[in-house]
Hints:
Elements: E1 7-9, E2 12-14, E3 18-20, H1 29-36, E4 42-49, H2 50-54, H3 58-63, E5 74-78, H4 82-94, E6 100-105, H5 110-113, H6 125-139, E7 144-149, E8 151-153, E9 156-157, H7 159-168, E10 173-177, H8 191-200, E11 206-209, H9 215-225, E12 229-232, H10 242-250, H11 261-279, H12 282-297, H13 304-310, H14 316-324
Parallel strand pairs: 3-4, 3-12, 4-5, 5-6, 6-7, 7-10, 10-11, 11-12
Antiparallel strand pairs: 1-2, 8-9
Pfam family, one: Dus
Active site: 107 (proton donor)
Catalytic activity: a 5,6-dihydrouridine in tRNA + NADP(+) = a uridine in tRNA + NADPH + H(+); a 5,6-dihydrouridine in tRNA + NAD(+) = a uridine in tRNA + NADH + H(+)
Amino acid sequence: MSAHAGLKIGPLQVDLPVVLAPMAGVTNAAFRSLCRSYGAGLYVSEMISARALLEVNETTSRKASFGPDERVRSIQLYATNPDVVGAAVRTLVEEDGVDHVDLNVGCPSPKVTRRGGGAALPAHPVLFGRLVRSAVRAAGAVPVTVKMRKGVDDDHLTYLEAGRRAQDEGVAAVALHARTAEQFYSGRADWAAIATLKSALTTVPVLGNGDIWTADDALRMMAETGCDGVVVGRGCLGRPWLFRDLAHAFSGVPVPPAPALGEVVTVMRRHARALVEARGDEGFAVRDFRRHTGWYLTGYPVGGAARKALAMASSLAELDALLDALDPTAELPPGSEALPRGHVQGPRHVVLPEHWLRDRDDPTPPDDAGAFHSGG
């Protein structure tokens, strides 16, 4: 495999064609920093609500904060109102010095779709186009990208029309999670849809998302679809070194074998401490880290009792003692690299506002007040 070119997103030069997908409660500054330590790429914040940002919601302000090592400040916004998204983007660019804004129109969470947001929004193409236009104009020279799904369900696919509109309105790239909102996180991602979108969009990069568990998956996706880069979500949960593997693979260098458990434990300690430092509250940070313990240990021969105890740890001392008891020489059995981590739910009925699919050309923004949930 020859060395792979990087990725250009507007004026941003990304050395590797790799983007960290925003994930609710996961891709905070501490996790982004950990992932970035393994390789180049574009590391995007958790999704934040444009309305909550303007209302100076404390949780949102924290999610929108960046670490000192983040030279490229990349943030994902959720919005359904063109005026609100324009004001939020202006604030982010002019006051917070953000370098990249990604618009989320792919979140399948019922809390978001029932208000016409996330994956429901492209089903209203006129409103979607106005939202994108408002964000692009407010951003000025800062690139705006869009992350979407294939559509609401197989009977309401929106990605081609939405992709073309986004391109026409001046976005710098379009990312497609190749599932419908109805699929949620179930089934296989439809990489053929990524190829179809790539053929349809001729002037902006197309990024593929879905089922990239290993570096080989990323190379395969790019070869099969012709996409310009990959967006990595659940594949890096408990595997921040996936970005090192991707850097090797894209450079044509052999990918290292999966780490022994001792190396995994070292990364777990580092991650937990970074969360404590970022939050300044050990109890909260350790509780936050507990969700990661199962992901880090997926596939490793660690007993159920140890997993359960780690998932209930409440201090760094307790976490360290439990990690000390694990066998550092334990190896990951072959084939376990691709075991799913994170969301696996679905398919599920998509909750939409009343008459949403009937009134497709209605440009009126839905009322999204309170839709502060995040996901992708």
